[in-house]
Design brief:
Blueprint lengths: L4 H18 L1 H7 L4 H25 L3 H19 L8 H4 L4 H14 L8 H12 L9 H23 L6 H19 L1 H5 L8 H7 L3 H5 L5 H22 L7 H23 L13 H16 L3
Length: about 300
């Protein structure tokens, strides 16, 4: 039996709640999309969030459980892409989050009727999420790039299919935006990540600037560390700059939301600079007031994109 319109609407509403609660800047920017594009964007985010949260919940106790959680999502997504209705087994029905999983998947099944999101993209996302269960150091930026692509660029590539475009170069710019945003995440979350024995900053960069892992674990701020962050911030901004060249290739009614999301996320880098690069003191973020005040200027820029 196919889902009723009410069930589909309930599923999308749940996805919107997940987005609003866990991705404030993303949600703020998405509110400016046409309604028909907002709902699938929320569903996209909710899927990513659920997968990430489930792996985080189980990886502490068992990498095997994390793999099983991802395999469960793979099976359900494969069912959707093959045109089958998602069925909850008796065992799955006993899980506290199985109902929410199926709400997300109901929304996904509906959005795939309109948007051509290749199955390889959510599968690549899952590979990236699973990396966190067994990999906590990256030797080079090229190695880190693959991780950033999987956990962030895939989201940009999936989103682009919803935003709409005709130019074949568009995915290249969407990929760049994901890289810039994930580097921003890494810089913002340095303190939180070391508590889980994770250092995403490339080892080659630490060596280049004379920063030791012990210094990071001890939350020590010095000139070497500041220079390292300046280098990484410049790298992130280069990716944002590249990404923004592709915004004009998107459908007009989505450009403002994408430019706004890009600028709000990049502003986290400004905040890191404002606090003198002391990412150990507090987690950089943008306030609601900053988001609101940014709207008029960015709206004019988006309107004038050619």
């Amino acid at each position: 039996m196919l889902e009723t319109p009410d069930k589909i609407e309930t599923a999308y509403k749940y996805c919107e709640i997940v987005t609003r609660e866990h991705a404030r800047s993303f949600y703020f920017a998405a509110k400016f999309l046409p309604r028909r594009k907002r709902k699938p964007i929320y569903a996209l985010y909710a899927l990513c969030r659920h997968i990430d949260d489930e792996v985080d919940e189980v990886e502490v106790s068992s990498e095997t459980e994390a793999i099983e959680a991802v395999e469960n999502w793979k099976r359900k997504l494969n069912s959707i892409y093959n045109g089958d209705k998602v069925q909850s087994s008796k065992i799955e029905a006993q899980k506290p989050n199985s109902k929410n999983q199926n709400l997300v998947l109901t929304a996904w099944r509906d959005l795939l009727k309109t948007y051509d999101i290749k199955q390889e993209l959510p599968l690549d996302l899952m590979k990236g999420v699973l990396q966190d269960t067994h990999k906590n150091r990256y030797q080079t930026f090229n190695e880190l790039y693959i991780y950033c692509y999987r956990v962030a660029s895939t989201v940009g590539l999936m989103s682009s299919e919803i935003f709409g475009y005709t130019d074949k170069r568009t995915p290249e710019y969407a990929e760049a935006l994901g890289i810039g945003m994930q580097i921003t995440n890494i810089l913002r979350d340095i303190k939180e990540d070391v508590l889980m024995n994770r250092i995403y900053l490339p080892q080659e960069d630490l060596q280049k600037f004379g920063v030791s892992e012990k210094q990071i674990f001890d939350n020590q701020l010095n000139e070497n560390f500041i220079n390292l962050l300046k280098f990484e911030i410049k790298r992130a901004r280069n990716y944002y700059a590249k990404a923004e060249k592709g915004i004009s290739l998107l459908e007009k009614n989505t450009r403002f939301s994408v430019l706004l999301a890009s600028r709000l996320y990049a502003k986290i880098l400004d905040e890191i600079e404002e606090q003198n690069y002391d990412v150990f003191k507090r987690r950089a973020h943008t306030s609601k007031a900053q988001k609101i005040f940014a709207v008029p200027k960015i709206w004019l820029e988006a309107r004038n994109l050619q």
